Amino acid sequence: MGRDTLIYCGIDWAERHHDVALVDDTGRLLAKRRITDSAAGYRVLLDLLAEYGDTEADPIPVAIETSRGLLVAVLRTGKRMVFAVNPMAAARYRDRHGVSRKKSDPGDALVLANILRTDMAIHRPLPDDTDLARAIAVIARAQQDATWNRQQLANQLRSLLREYYPAALEAFSTWQNGLCRPEARELLKVAPTSTQAARLTRTQLRSALKRAGRTRGIEAEAERLREVFRGDYAHQPALVEEALGKQMLAVLRQLDAACAATDELATAVEEAFTQHPDAEIIRSFPGLGVQLGARVLAEIGDDRKRFADARGLKAYAGSAPVTRSSGKKHYVGRRMVKNDRLNHAGYLWAFAAINASQGAGAHYHRRREHGDWHAQAQRHLFNRMLGQLYHCLQNNSLFEEHLAFPASLAVAA
To answer: Which of 88, 182, 188, 190 is a plausible cystine mate for 212, CB 3.0–4.6 Å?
Structure first.
């Protein structure tokens, strides 16, 4: 049939099958179908859409409760608008269709189609990012997850060492990244218990440091470690200490794998990010290096039409405050619903920018004097710099300190 009327599609996705519903602009159900999660099922879906007037020039919009997967990749071909509707929002819409609290997969597909029919203007379609930007998003998020996983394992290992091996914690406390350093992991492999560490010779310590890749200060570091390991510490009974040492080695193997995965993904992020045309603009901002800049690009994408203005980007990142006003009550506070990955990257960005930029540092300290606590001042700085980033990306210009913080620099001068 032709497209004399507007048609909307809703898809309730699952692991093995998906339910599809098509409605017209009056809410009348035109078709419903259950397809498999396979290439054959995707062809059935595309044929169904084409049967109801879907063309390359005028595709039927689709609502689905996810933004990832092969099904979404198939739907995003061409100019089709795909709307990833939050499952919580879809549940609220479901209550508009009945009060019995009933639920079914075909019914959810119909609800999603009707969401587009009634409220498509207030929902945001998936951004039209380039394939390179989407690839960077995959790798940068994986690297971020690997970093969090590595830290979780390091915390688990530190907690275990406190139970029976305090000498190791004292020996590694002066090193940046502590237990995640290759030297620390190599020494724990050589001496998994405090008793074994006390027996290490200078030669064994030097060899372990060299195997870990250390090239400078080996003699002095070996002497320091020897003194620490031979210090006076409390010990577990011999059998218990040996058992804890075996448990520690098992956790250490997991930490080794996490560290290797983090480093490999960091290299992949650097290779992909430096190829993107927006990389130069993003890295021109103080506090944004390769890894952190890639995380920012991964979350905001390179679709210039994704955000109508800087306020939309700030709300998406959770840096802009949210206002709740009802009657005599008026509350302004931080946003709880936001892109958590971008918000986390923004915290690190603002923290680094305080020392990397004179203007950013002055802005932070001024907010502190104004009465903000540390997190508030950092969020305020992130909010301001995010607006500057939006401006630079829209105008294809690099960050300039004297334009970004003119008042702060004048006061500092």
So the answer is: 182
Name residues whose C-beta falls within 8 Å of residue 157's C-beta, 6 or more positions apart in sequence: 179, 248, 251, 252, 255
Q: Which amino acid is at 346?
A: G
Alpha carbon 265 to chain centroid distance? 14
Nearby residues of 167 by Cβ (< 8 Å), 6 or more positions away: 194, 197, 198, 228, 229, 231, 233
pLDDT tens sequence across 188-201: 999 999 999 999 99
Cα 65 to Cα 83, 89, 126, 133, 408: the distances in Å are: 8, 10, 12, 22, 45
DSSP state of 61: P
Q: Which residues pair with 11 in a beta bridge?
A: 20, 64
Cα distance between residue 139 and residue 254, in whole Å: 21
**Packing angle between helix 238-273 and helix 131-164, nearest 10 degrees?**
160
| Rounded Cα–Cα distance for residues 51 and 21 (Å) | 13
> What residues have CB less than 8 Å from 18, skipping those under 6 apart?
11, 12, 34, 35, 36, 37, 41, 45, 71
Instruction: Note the pLDDT tens digit of each residue in 10-56.
Output: 999 988 899 999 999 998 999 999 999 999 999 999 999 999 988 98
Other Cβ atoms closer than 10 A to 226: 17
Residues 385, 386, 389, 390, Cα dihedral to 10°: -140
Contact 255, 179 (CB under 8 A): yes
CA atoms of 327 and 387, how far apart (whole Å): 32
Q: HSE-up of 75 (CA within 13 Å, CB side)?
A: 27
**Tokens standing for residue 212:** 């870990």
**Amino acid identity of 51?**
E
pTM of structure: 0.87
DSSP 177: T
